[in-house]
Amino acid sequence: MDRRSFLTKTALGGAAAAGASALAAPAYAQGKRTLTMVTTWGRGLAGVHDAAQRVADSITAMTDGELTIELKAAGELVGAFEVFDAVTAGQADMYHAADYYFVGQHPAYAFFTSVPFGMTAQELMNWYHHAGGMQLHDELGEIFGLKSFLAGNTGAQAGGWFNKEITSPDDFKGLKFRMPGLGGKALGKLGASVQNLPGGEVYQALASGAIDGTEWIGPWADEKAGFQEITKIYYTAGFHEPGAGLSLATNRDVFDSLSPAHQKVIEIASAETHQWNLAQFLANNGTALQRLASSGVKVLEFPDSVWDAMGDASAEVHAENLGDEFYAKVFDSYSTSMVSSSDWITKSESAYRAQRDRVLG
Q1: Looking at the 3D structure of the chain, how many domains does it have?
Q2: At 109, which CATH number?
Q3: Distance of CA 294 to CAs 265, 299, 350, Å?
Q4: Cα–Cα distances in Å, from 349 out to 29, 171, 355, 356?
Q5: Is 204 among the domain residues?
Q6: Are 181 and 225 contained in the same domain?
Q7: Around 20, how many Cα atoms within 13 Å sit in the side-chain half-sphere?
Q8: Which member of 40, 81, 167, 195 lies 3.0 to 4.6 Å from 97 by CB, making a disulfide possible if both were Cys?
């Protein structure tokens, strides 16, 4: 039995499966078609919900309403972390999410969001569009009956909010910290009690003391979430997500049933959303950080000893997954592209920016 058949028959089970079959066929009306998009984002979450809404609205507009995307935020049809199974099983037509939430389905999904000590946003797009990344995303999606595209990017994410300063790797021991993906697994190796919570649940968990700290995205989204109301200790550079991609994934049977023109619209709308969303975060983060600092937030960087420990832990996590043939294939492609991209960017843009900052003071 192939993976798609297995998921269709078993993922939701019983009454839920009955509901899935009722929703499996997209709605039609007078030659028009409505697809249901579920997301991992609470409605209104800064940046990430914006990306989901942007790609949904763009597809609808670019097809002149022939293909209408109906967005359901987390909890409106299924829970935040249930969107993958909902789409593979046909309960919804597409999802918008960070694919590293689904490393339980396959650890290689992490590469299409971010991995610790991985690619920046620009390096990710170099790999994705010109060094085989998109093809690998498609190959992975095919296992689960999905057609996936990158459709958003947060840029480099912050190290996060803490209830105490982090002066050495030992400070992570016993710390209850929210961090998804392979970064969370690496942090666990430093002794942290790692939690994987949907974005809409993080504020309450931090406020109640259920967690001692959290990463979310960066200054603008974090300020919107209100974490500065709870703690004033903020680390601005993190090891875990140096350029986090977001994904739009469509049930593959649904995608294959679309016209070539509508399929291309989904691809182009996703790529446009990626660039628009990355610019949205980067345009807002600087002024948001200034507001946070002026309100009493203590802006810090991790010491080298912490970075070194995070690097060792991240290497362990990768090593544990390299026994999986497909993970190893993606890892090799990703690593080769990252080294190549970084070499030129370091010699060109990074060198220029250092000189620009020196000359302009």
Answers
A1: 2
A2: 3.40.190.170
A3: 44, 10, 29
A4: 51, 35, 10, 10
A5: yes
A6: yes
A7: 23
A8: 40
Mean pLDDT by groups of 10 residues along the chain of 361 residues:
39 38 50 95 97 98 98 98 98 98 98 98 98 98 98 98 97 97 97 96 97 98 98 97 98 98 98 98 98 98 98 98 98 98 95 96 85
Mind giving me the DSSP string for 178-215?
Answer: E--HHHHHHHHHTT-EEE---HHHHHHHHHHTS-SEE-
Residues in contact with 213: Cβ distance below 8 Å, sequence separation at least 6, in sequence order = 160, 161, 162, 163, 175, 176, 177, 178, 206, 231
What pTM value is reported for the model? 0.90
Nearest to 109 by CA among 181, 37, 178, 55: 181
Cα–Cα distance measured from residue 269 to residue 54, given in angstroms and rounded to the nearest whole number: 8
CATH code of residue 177: 3.40.190.10
Shared-domain flag, residues 182 and 296 = yes
Residue 205: how many CB atoms within 10 A of its CB? 16
- Residue 233 shares a structural domain with residue 252: no
- The backbone torsions φ and ψ at residue 298, rounded to the nearest 5 degrees and listed phi first, read -90, 110
**Residue 91: both structure tokens together:** 């309960």
* C-beta separation of 215 from 178 below 8 A: yes
Q: Domain residues for 175? A: 160-241+288-320
> From CA 278, how far away is CA 109, in angstroms rounded?
20
- Residue pair 313/319 in contact (Cβ under 8 Å)? The answer is no
Across the strands, what pairs with 39? 96
Dist CA 247 CA 176 (whole Å)? 28
Task: Confirm whether 122 is domain-assigned.
Answer: yes
Least Cα distance to 38 among 67, 76, 88 occurs for 76
Whether 193 maps to a domain, the answer reads: yes
Note the pLDDT of residue 4. 42
Q: Is residue 127 part of a domain?
A: yes
Backbone angles phi, psi at 309, to 5 degrees: -65, -40
Supply the pLDDT for residue 31: 72
| pLDDT at residue number 28 | 56
